[in-house]
Amino acid sequence: MNILAINAYHPNASAALVQNGQLVAAVEEERFNRVKYAAGFPVQAIRYCLGEASIEIHDVHYIVVPRNPWARLWKKLMFAARLPRFAADRAQVMARFAGMHYQLADALGVTPERIRAKFHRLEHHQAHLASAFFVSPFDQAALLSVDGLGDFASAMWGVGQGSKMEVKGDVTFPHSLGIYYTALTQYLGFWKFGDEYKVMGLGSYGQPAHIDKFHRIVQPGPGVGFRLGLEYFLHQRQGAQMTWSNSNETPVLGRLYSDELEKLLGPARKAEEPLESKHQDIAATQQAALEEVLFAMLNELHRRTGMKNLCLAGGVAFNCVANGKIFSHTPFERVWVQPAAGDAGLAVGAAFHLYHQILGGRRQFVMDHSYWGPGFLLEHIRQAIREKALPDKGFRVRQLTEWELAAETASFLAQGDIIGWFQGRMEWGPRALGNRSILADPRRADMKDILNRRIKHREPFRPFAPSILEESVSEYFDAPSLSPFMQMAFPVRPEKRNEIPAPTHVDGTGRLQTVSRGANPRFWALLQEFRRQTGVPVLLNTSFNDSEPIVCQPQEAIDCFLRTQMDALVLGDFVIDTPAELPSSLRD
Fold first, then answer.
1. Rg (Cα) of the chain, in Å, rounded?
2. Residue 231: is it exposed, middle or buried by C-beta count within 10 angstroms (0-12/13-18/19+)?
């Protein structure tokens, strides 16, 4: 049985394919069209998923879409009566989904008759809950999804047991923790779609000095819920305006905060203005208020379910600072956040919801790694090297054995080199987890600045992440849980902070990735060899990109290597570097 799930006409457009209860492929459209957070219809992602499964569209039995325009229709109609523009937008959305059969046929170059699959629709947050539970290692768990808005809801909670889950409640428009966090992100001068993670890093530099004022902006309760002080927001008056003309443009989100917020907190920061301590304090309070509400929800969820396991999904589940505190602020003992917890993950959730909840398939799959995107054969990599004429440009290209590769790369890193590391199948989700990564020595206190100056060009308050051997976690982190998908921040042990200063944030934490031999043997071997050479089982790990989506193909990895100042590129079995005697101008 083949199930194709399509997350379309929404930021982080994606596709996933489940075959007989096993995930075969999952990928975001942005990795192909090179547009961050790409929306629209994920044509190339769909083609990849079909190809990875070695099937054609006529072999697909079910197509499921994690969007139900009919959900909460009465609430939508009531709101549309006040805002004609919203009504027009809803009509356009419904028309898009009604015509998806024909759009898919056109995209794949087939006649509509070739698509024999039965179409299903699934509500946004049910897909989020399914994406967390049905691929988790838990047989039963409490479930919570929290994000901006989807199908006129911003949160949903329930329980999962075996191959079924039951929705117990939700929080509907206009109350939204995701909108709260984005509105304050805009207020602080960060207007690009997806900038919330920047403010999470900024908050560590400040103090939650405005918590009393923030209690007027967002409050816990009732039940597994929360309420916004709506006078501080605009979305309930005009809708959350998100625009994109096509899938080749990053979405743009309209202003969400009102003038009342500026009256409460002072004038908003303009994007070009310097960041001051007052902005750091507001960011810290923004985070503290989010955590207060989230932990209240989780404690009430635990009281109602009595379960020890928790599955989280939705955009708010990317808040690794809050996630790392769940163990100390709630009774939950185990927490699962899959690598694409945001809207890209809707595709995986929709597919597994259909397989288990609707079709009655028994659970047999656990997502124990994130490598569900494209991979490339040795010949494809060799061809990319030839096409880029690297030897002719003065670069040294060597093909090494597995052991030589780990030893050579670890030696580069130990001497302070910055390495592009391209291996196997691409990661699912926004984190680079050892297959499309840029790696560096964590022991150098200046490495963060070097990386930003030479490659990443990021704001100085944003941390880089540590990847660590799973077996060594307790030596370096006060971590009550493993974190294979880089979804939790834990304190670095005080005695180790001077040993790995580069990925240690100003608050003494690290958003760590725990690396197991089973999930990624080649990356694990590199960490093991780095430990043998230096005594440290940690590497600084950041995404293989520079102001673009993470690289997908070998050609993109080479291009990024050439236009930045990496010292070497490890591309599959090949090591590419510039001999010391050659001038750096050969890189241009």
1. 23
2. middle
Cβ(536)–Cβ(530) under 8 Å? yes
Would you say 112 and 101 are in contact if contact means Cβ atoms under 8 Å apart? yes
Q: pLDDT for 16-51, tens place per residue?
A: 999 999 999 999 999 999 999 999 899 999 999 999
Rounded alpha-carbon distances, angstroms, from residue 185 to 177, 349, 507? 12, 28, 20
Q: Which residue has the tokens 């838990």?
A: 138
- Model pTM? 0.94
The amino acid at residue 489 is: A
For residues 459 and 506, the answer to whether their CB atoms sit within 8 Å is no
What are the tens digits of pLDDT across the range 99-134? Answer: 889 999 999 999 999 999 999 999 999 999 999 999
Q: Determine the pLDDT at residue 84.
A: 67
Q: Which of 568, 470, 567 is nearest to 512 (CA)?
A: 470
Domains of the chain as residue ranges with CATH: 2-128 (3.30.420.40), 138-336 (3.30.420.40), 378-587 (3.90.870.20)
Nearest alpha-carbon partner for 11 in 124, 126, 88, 135: 124
Which regions of the chain are under pLDDT 70? 84-93, 240-248, 580-588
Distance of alpha carbon 528 from the chain centroid? 27
Half-sphere CA count of 320, side-chain side, radius 13 A: 31
| Whole-Å CA distances, 473 to 12, 128, 449, 529 | 32, 29, 26, 16
Q: What SS3 class is residue 370? A: coil
Contact assessment for residue 193 and residue 179, using Cβ atoms and an 8 Å cutoff: no
Instruction: Report the C-alpha gap between 37 and 550 in whole angstroms.
Output: 11
